[in-house]
């Protein structure tokens, strides 16, 4: 399918007037055509106006209409699957199979949110009926979640489909009833244009208000800045660097009306290897660890960047297996030249640290590639050097050799907030793990056993979030059905006349919505 390089304002593809840039193929290190045209500040304003104008009509759509829209976007994406995957492979260097899987995950997310909308439970309707005879009398009170308004989404570089234009942030915002403006990531503009085409087809097919979706390219940071600063925007979803997330949060907080920025940023996803488990299966864990570390050139927010284990012969065996595994690990293409440079700079810093030694290295090659690395440091030195907690985005990890389980615990205590913490434990480790659990919960959004954080299931029970700096908003998740909560706020109606009551909060409940009535849950 032919690409135009035009941005999308509502239903119109327009040649942006804010400068231009080209795509980049990281596998060949060649620029790609066509040229993409960034938005001007005026075009940013137009996208915000369209989103604002469409908000009342979009929030008024029935749950069925909105669910149908989400499913139609999924259907339209499937129609363009081969073009989207082919362009995605060129722009990201990710293998075809990975992008096919990611497209399936993207359509799966959209369909999950369609179910969430139809179910109506997300509205969290609560009814406390009037008690006129009580002293003092209780008024009639009815709570329902409402959409916050237009949402800006910054697509992620490392998930060009599932965390990008029609990804989880967009799907959850639409599900809540919020129009979306996407700032396409400059690392995959062609893929973004194709996805936008699929969305436009769904908007038309479902007769949705045109401003429910716009997508902007950016030739400069002014576009992102202006989007977050626009008073019509009410929330922001972001996945990327800590620096980027914090810069956008600062803009959002300095507005006349500050708004939330739901930024998923940096996490090193500690892996805790308990002594009994290491005695039993150090070699097997090492092999699985190398697989998780090098998957996708390590370009996952859940990549295992830190390993904590107690000094012991089994740790030596673990390291030997890791070194063997790495030696057979081919250099893999990274997403962008900038991400590759950042990775190499992080590796250089670890190599230059006199307390850090290298456990093993992967194969190397010319170009925009990641050579996997695993390093080691002693527990006391880790405790004394906070730079060793910096995320090195890519296939790099640091093993911390702890003197004891009690030092391992001390190290967990000083860790920053994380998306995931993995624990490898056997039955004999149980008392110590039980004692660690409250600390692990305090540090991470997801605590998992006998595995690694990579591979995030999209479902009702998933949390992909965590304390700062893994996110700016630890009470939420950017994956799974609870992601919708970011774009809702509760409103309480007191003594609302029945003639004004919307069906979801009426006591007749003709829509069959789950309602909590006078303290008891009624399902449909
Ligand atoms: P990024 O530089 O933070 O950019 C993400 C998005 O935000 C891009 O669209 C970018 O625009 C925009 N942006 C960033 N800073 C901005 C600012 N000050 N004002 C306006 N817009 C801004 O992230 P990235 O390009 O994806 O990767 C860079 C680094 O981020 C990686 O090396 C890695 O360290 C980290 N990263 C972490 C994760 C994770 O999940 N933990 C995922 C991806 C990346 P432009 O496209 O115009 O630059």
Automatic annotation (TrEMBL):
It comes from the Bacteria. It holds the Pfam family Aldedh. GO terms for molecular function: oxidoreductase activity, acting on the aldehyde or oxo group of donors, NAD or NADP as acceptor. Coiled coil: none annotated. Residues 13-408 form the Aldehyde dehydrogenase domain. The keyword Oxidoreductase applies. Keywords: Oxidoreductase. The keyword Oxidoreductase applies. PANTHER family: ALDEHYDE DEHYDROGENASE-RELATED, SUCCINATE-SEMIALDEHYDE DEHYDROGENASE, MITOCHONDRIAL. This is Aldehyde Dehydrogenase.
């Amino acid at each position: 399918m032919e690409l135009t390089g035009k941005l999308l304002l509502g239903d119109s593809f327009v040649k942006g007037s804010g400068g231009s840039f080209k795509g980049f193929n990281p596998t060949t290190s060649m620029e790609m055509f066509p040229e993409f045209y960034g938005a001007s500040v005026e075009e940013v304003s137009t996208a915000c106006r369209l989103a604002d104008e469409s908000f009342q009509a979009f929030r008024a759509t029935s749950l069925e209409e909105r669910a149908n829209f989400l499913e139609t976007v999924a259907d339209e994406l499937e129609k363009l699957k081969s073009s989207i995957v082919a362009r995605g492979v060129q722009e990201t260097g990710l293998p075809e199979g990975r992008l096919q899987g990611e497209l399936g995950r993207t359509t799966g997310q959209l369909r999950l949110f369609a179910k969430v909308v139809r179910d109506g439970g997300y509205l969290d309707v609560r009814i406390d009926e009037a008690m006129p005879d009580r002293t003092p009398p209780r008024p009639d009170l009815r709570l329902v979640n409402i959409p916050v308004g237009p949402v800006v989404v910054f697509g992620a570089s490392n998930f060009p489909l599932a965390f990008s234009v029609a990804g989880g942030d967009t799907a959850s915002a639409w599900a809540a009833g919020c129009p979306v403006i996407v700032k396409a990531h400059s690392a995959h503009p062609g893929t973004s244009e194709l996805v936008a085409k699929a969305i436009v087809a769904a908007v038309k097919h479902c007769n949705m208000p045109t401003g429910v979706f716009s997508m902007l390219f950016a030739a400069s940071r002014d576009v992102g800045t202006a989007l977050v600063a626009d008073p019509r925007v009410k929330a922001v979803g972001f996945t990327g660097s800590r620096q980027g997330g914090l810069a956008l949060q600062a803009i959002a907080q300095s507005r006349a009306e500050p708004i939330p920025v739901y930024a998923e940023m940096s996490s090193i996803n500690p892996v805790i290897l308990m002594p009994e488990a290491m005695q039993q299966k150090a070699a097997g864990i090492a092999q699985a660890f190398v697989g998780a570390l090098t998957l996708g050139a390590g370009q996952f927010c859940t990549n295992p960047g830190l390993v904590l284990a107690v000094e012991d012969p089994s740790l030596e065996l673990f390291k030997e297996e890791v070194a063997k595994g790495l030696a057979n690990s081919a250099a893999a293409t990274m997403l962008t030249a900038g991400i590759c440079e950042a990775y190499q700079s992080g590796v250089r810093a670890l190599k230059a640290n006199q307390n850090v030694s290298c456990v093993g290295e992967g194969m190397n090659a010319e170009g925009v590639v990641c050579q996997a690395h695993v390093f080691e440091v002693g527990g006391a030195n880790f405790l004394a050097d906070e730079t060793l907690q910096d995320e090195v985005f890519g296939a790099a990890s640091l093993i911390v050799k702890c003197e004891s389980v009690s030092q391992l615990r001390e190290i967990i205590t000083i860790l920053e907030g994380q998306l995931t913490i993995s624990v490898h434990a056997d039955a004999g480790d149980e008392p110590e793990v039980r004692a660690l659990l409250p600390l692990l919960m305090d540090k991470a959004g997801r605590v998992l056993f006998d595995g690694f954080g990579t591979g995030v299931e999209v479902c009702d029970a998933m949390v992909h979030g965590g304390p700062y700096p893994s996110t700016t908003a630890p009470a939420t998740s950017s994956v799974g059905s609870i992601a919708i909560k970011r774009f809702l706020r509760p409103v309480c109606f007191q003594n609302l006349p029945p003639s004004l009551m919307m069906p979801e909060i009426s006591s007749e409940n003709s829509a069959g919505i789950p309602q909590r009535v006078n303290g008891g849950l009624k399902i449909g």
